[in-house]
Amino acid sequence: MDERMRFVVRLKDGETMASLCREFGISRKTGYKIFERYQQCGLEGLSDRVRRPFRYANRLPAQVEAAIVSAKREKPHWGARKIRERLLRRLPHAIKTPAASTIHAVLDRHGLVQSMGRRRSRAEGTPLSQGLLPNDLWCTDYKGEFQLSDKRYCYPLTVTDYCSRYLLLCEALESNREELAFPAFERLFHERGLPRAIRSDNGVPFASPHGLFQLSKLSVWWLRLGISIERIRPGHPQQNGRHERMHLTLKKEATRPAGANILQQQAKFDAFLDEFNHERPHGQEGSNEMKFSNIADSRRTCALGIAGLQRGSYVNPA
To answer: Where are the domains of the chain?
Structure first.
């Protein structure tokens, strides 16, 4: 209002409309409109006007809105659809009953809708073991997906032995769905036996945000095989640092450039696995293969039959 008043005062003092409009940054149409309102209403014409429309084309009649509120207070546990059915029985046929969405909006405007907040279970880490011997602890994860030359994506599933850093599995999969992870782990268990524990993050398919204790089908299968489950804390990849460091080497040496298709990429992973385990030095005495071969608990490597690894069957590790 102060700006408009200064504009009108200077205009009445004899300054031109064009120069004032340029100075105040408005069009001449707006300048003439301000001056006309001043001539018609005086100083009141310079104040902000209410922008609310004079009428609402689709506004509910006050009587219908009052009936909706009254019905909700009579039946506080009823929702909008049930209240609409109640109004259909009670209101005259000449009155059009509003839609359920409109009734819900009316109830919400009057504070009669109780918002049900989503219950989100926050993932938490588990106690982590030391993994002092081979096959005591395996670490698993998906290296970040990347695009192949055929425009399809590859999701590498990797498993390492924590003690020896032996790369047990590097599988090129088309997605991180658990139905693809099951066969990969089944083949690995037949070849290498069962570890005492498997450490992973809280992502799928290792965990499920909607499952009991965030257990997925894959993790339940591990438990039934007698394998303990370890999970790192969300946002703390350093708790699986050895495995993540291997991912860095894998990314540099086996994904740049990416394979033409999933089969060629798997061939690159197989070559990397062989070099990583048998040729690449790891700054520790003895090769990975020697350390991994010295498995203390032989019952976990050779005492398991094929039937014991079937998904859904139970294996007693004792």
So the answer is: 2-46, 62-109, 137-309
